Amino acid sequence: MRIIFIPVLASVAILSGCGGGETHTKAASNAPAITVESVTVCSQEWPDAYEATGTVHARTAAVTSSKVMAYVRQVAVQVGDRVKEGQELVTLDAQDLDANVRRAEAAEAEVRSAIPEADNGVAGAKANLDLAQSTFKRMEELAAKKSISNQEFDEASARLKSAQAAHDMARAKRSQLDSKLAQVGQEIRAARIMRDYTRIAAPFAGVVTSKSVEPGNLAAPGAPLLTIEREGTYRLEASVDESKLPFVKTGQSVDVTLEALDRRLTARVSEIVPAVDAASRAYTVKIDLPALHVRSGMFGRAWFPMGSRKVLTVPATAVVQRGQLQSVFVIDDGVARNRLITTGRRDANGLEVLSGLSEGEKVVSPIPSALADGVRVEARQ
After folding, report:
1. For a designed S-S bond to 70, which of 92, 169, 280, 325 qualifies (C-beta 3.0 to 4.6 A apart)?
2. DSSP string, 309-329
3. This prediction's pTM
4. Using one digit for the tens of pLDDT, what is the confidence trace for 200-222?
């Protein structure tokens, strides 16, 4: 009895289900028609564009590093902090460099202390020279009158030459002190410059985007410590296929969308990198963005105009969106039929239809809340 009873129940269920479907179809066909507005699917000339994807980068970015090897004493900023131009960011240990500055300053003090003595020596040599010159002049007059011997005249001449040599030597020593003082001054400036390298400052106003240093680390020359980006100056670096490069020109305006902003922007192509990437066969095109609140690393798209093309379009109000599926209600002999479609670009005039509709078909737009598949409709345009 079990073997016979189960098929009988199944048959009753199937018959019941079929009977219900026929009743629903008849009810839908017998229901009064719903008045709807309709539009005709038609083709339009839409501007064609090539879509390229890319990443936002700062137009001006600086990686700060140390010029000297020293231990880090203090890091004054964190990632995300805004900094001013000249603001101190990292402080290094400067004990050795301070000692070099003090050593150079001590050498300068030593040279300066020797200057008065040298000046006195020059003054004394000048006085002796003046006396020798006066004495020689008198002896020269007496020699002309034969009032002195040749020996006495020669001795006066020798004293003049000796005084002149002593004076020249004193002046030379004073000049050496001046040269030594200038040299020591340069050493002091160099030592102070090296000491100033232990205070790493921001090269311009911006925001800290990366940090790879902590107090106690040993900073080596050239090793990156912080990365700073200038705010308000960003660009989208998009990859453009080499076959589409003829459509890209420096200075042209392009439409750009950033995923984080969910809006379309007008930007300008500022640079086309002449080298092509061997792996992707694409060029890098840099597009200057308007001053917006953006950050490096954002994903974006750019559309480069390539003329126009014919596309099938429907109003956005004619499309039903359920998850990832899109559909429209096509009017077929006075009955609304729900049909899946695939759409492309969105424009102010509507949506591009890639598949699912043909030109000349009529679709319901806007869609009434009571409309369902198989419902009789009375269309008006």
Report:
1. 92
2. EEEEEE-GGG-EEETTEEEEE
3. 0.57
4. 999 999 999 999 999 999 999 99
